[in-house]
Design brief:
Elements (H helix, E strand, L loop, with lengths): L3 E6 L3 H12 L4 E7 L2 H11 L3 E4 L8 H11 L4 E6 L4 H9 L4 E4 L3 H13 L4 E2 L1 H17 L10 H11 L4 H8 L3 H15 L4 H10 L6
Parallel strand pairs: 1-2, 1-3, 3-4, 4-5, 5-6
Helix pairs in contact: 2-3, 7-9, 7-10, 8-9
């Protein structure tokens, strides 16, 4: 059997180098492409056709979660792992909703990542122990209250616009990056402010930081 072909996406070169050393040491795993941001990861997934994508959450242009949602649509056969420094329940749930097969902490990547890759390729989920606890607690809370996890307040496209606005891009730059009209960008921006009850870029930026779309 040929090795699992892996796309590795993280905006820190040193992190990618360390993770690649872990993976390339295994005879059944090989890194065939590296990306420095989420948009590049989506492009490489289309051109290089990896079997598995390992995505960091906090990346420029597109976050790992945004990239995972796009990849789930354009490459439904692609397995996805989230590799992150954030031991955070919100990110965990968003990762699973985005189509990820597993959620691995960078702090224990040397211990967990190889097994997570193999589990993903077997079609099995991989979660670190704390994540399993969070899922069980969430399930019990929902069952007790008879509630479902609420949907996100904004759409995927609005989230893309929000991230780029918070990163300081002008409406023209956003329109160029997303290949849409400036008028469409402005409409999405107005919808965002109305939905979130916000009035300017500063408030949108604070929301983006709280939501993990950009780093403070």
């Amino acid at each position: 059997m040929r090795p699992t072909r892996i796309l590795l996406a993280d905006d820190h070169v040193l992190v990618r180098r360390g993770v690649r050393l872990i993976l390339d040491n295994e005879p059944d795993l090989t890194v065939i492409a590296e990306a420095g941001d989420g948009a590049e990861a989506v492009d490489l997934a289309r051109s290089e056709m990896p079997d598995l994508a390992i995505l960091d959450i906090a990346m420029p242009r597109l976050t790992g979660l945004q990239a995972a949602r796009q990849l789930t649509r354009v490459r439904p056969d692609l397995r996805i792992l989230i590799l992150t420094m954030y031991d955070n329940e919100q990110y965990l749930f968003e990762s699973l909703k985005a189509g990820a097969s597993g959620y691995v902490l960078k702090s224990v990547a040397d211990r967990d990542l190889v097994e997570a890759c193999r589990a993903a390729m077997r079609g099995e989920p991989f979660l670190y122990p704390g994540a399993v606890t969070a899922l069980i607690r969430n399930f019990l809370e929902r069952a007790g209250q008879g509630e479902e996890v609420p949907d996100r307040a904004i759409t995927d496209r609005e989230e893309e616009i929000l991230k780029l606005v918070a990163e300081g891009h002008s409406s023209k730059e956003i329109a160029d990056l997303l290949v849409i009209s400036i008028k469409t960008v402005e409409r999405h921006r107005s919808n965002l402010m109305a939905k979130l009850g916000m009035k300017d870029r500063l408030e949108l930026t604070r929301y983006a930081i709280r939501s993990g779309l950009i780093e403070p």
